[in-house]
Amino acid sequence: MPLQDINHLTALITGTSGNLGINIAKRLIKEVPHDKKLTIIVTSRTLANANQTIQQLNSYNLEEVKRSAILDFDYSLMDFTDMVSILAAVYELQKNHKCIDLLYLNAAQGVYKGIDWWGATVECCTNPIKGVTYPTYKIQEVGVKSKDDLGLVFQANVFGPYYFIHKLIQYNMFGNSKDPRIIWISSVMSKPSYLSMDDLELLKSNESYEGSKRLIDLIHLATYKQLSQKYHIKQYLTHPGIVTSFSFFKFLNPITYYGMLFLFYLARLLGSPWHNIHGWIAANAPIYVSLYADQEFDKQNVKYGSASRWNGKEYLKTDEVDSTGENDVLTFFQSLTKQWDEKLKNQIVNTRTL
Ligand SMILES: NC(=O)c1ccc[n+]([C@@H]2O[C@H](COP(=O)([O-])OP(=O)(O)OC[C@H]3O[C@@H](n4cnc5c(N)ncnc54)[C@H](OP(=O)(O)O)[C@@H]3O)[C@@H](O)[C@H]2O)c1
């Protein structure tokens, strides 16, 4: 982005209260030139989390960064497992903001039951790097649906955010931006084998979280060209490597938490590029594609990963993404979008002239 040409940057980060989300916000506060006005829109499912996140970001600026230009915050309460809440959030956003320049699709959830401790011990003892990079011992529930009667993880992590983009475009929220960018957050765990084309809502899968990340990869590949040609929006695919996740703490006690951290550092020392551990380093790839990527030279058909060296020095690592199935996924998403447009058509009337 030619940052020098922009006077006011508005960024929306979904799931800002999480470790990655808050660090994306902090890096924006630090790295967007300090003489530019910056607006950060925090999203959460709860007002308490939104308020707390804004307080933390505000203190970070006042105590450590001290931007000279205006830094302001807004919040948007939205739950991606509730289509009406997505629509309501977009409706409020278009009333209060001229445009969104940067949209980080960071929020995610899994339906975890717990950890198979015996499996975890065996995996981590026999191959510690694999055990803490591609764990198979997190137990996920199968067949969980949202109250909208969609696969819950499918809706929370992929279809909800996809529909959010669709509605933001309908309300012309990118039209007034000089260089709008959408940044999807995928995962290192998104191999094609996690997704069955017969189960796109991930209802039969016991790896629905990983399947949702594979869907993100495919929906990105299936849409980025059209977004660019039709709406001048640049869309990028990123992943944060491995980072301590606030939402997973509930399954750990102090012993297992520090044991996990120890294995993360060990994996990094042994050469794993993905054990970033800290949210700040994990935010490197999303920040790179949103603030620094060159529209001409930085490819959009690859996945930008946040990586670090043994000593925690950050760098970027890009990977090719297997595109098998992208058209099937796009057709499915387009058809579901039509159905939801129809279902929601009387919920909120758009009074703006598009
Ligand atoms: N942690 C890792 O090692 C890792 C590895 C690969 C990829 N990732 C990806 O990186 C991103 C951030 O990870 P993280 O570990 O920082 O996550 P996290 O701490 O679990 O935070 C995710 C945030 O998403 C929000 N959220 C959850 N369900 C939602 C829903 N249904 N609707 C709206 N918001 C929802 C939550 O905010 P509220 O509770 O405030 O609503 C939560 O703070 C995710 O996309 C994750 O899949 C993480």
UniProtKB/TrEMBL annotation:
EC code(s) of this entry: 1.1.1.270
Keyword terms: Lipid biosynthesis, Lipid metabolism, NADP, Oxidoreductase, Steroid biosynthesis
Protein's GO biological process: ergosterol biosynthetic process
The protein's annotated pathway: Steroid biosynthesis; zymosterol biosynthesis; zymosterol from lanosterol: step 5/6
GO MF assignments: 3-beta-hydroxysteroid 3-dehydrogenase (NADP+) activity
GO cellular component: endoplasmic reticulum membrane; lipid droplet; mitochondrial outer membrane
Pfam families the UniProt entry points to: adh_short
The family this protein is said to belong to: Belongs to the short-chain dehydrogenases/reductases (SDR) family. ERG27 subfamily.
Protein name from the UniProt record: 3beta-hydroxysteroid 3-dehydrogenase
Species of the source: Pichia californica
Lineage: Eukaryota, Fungi, Dikarya, Ascomycota, Saccharomycotina
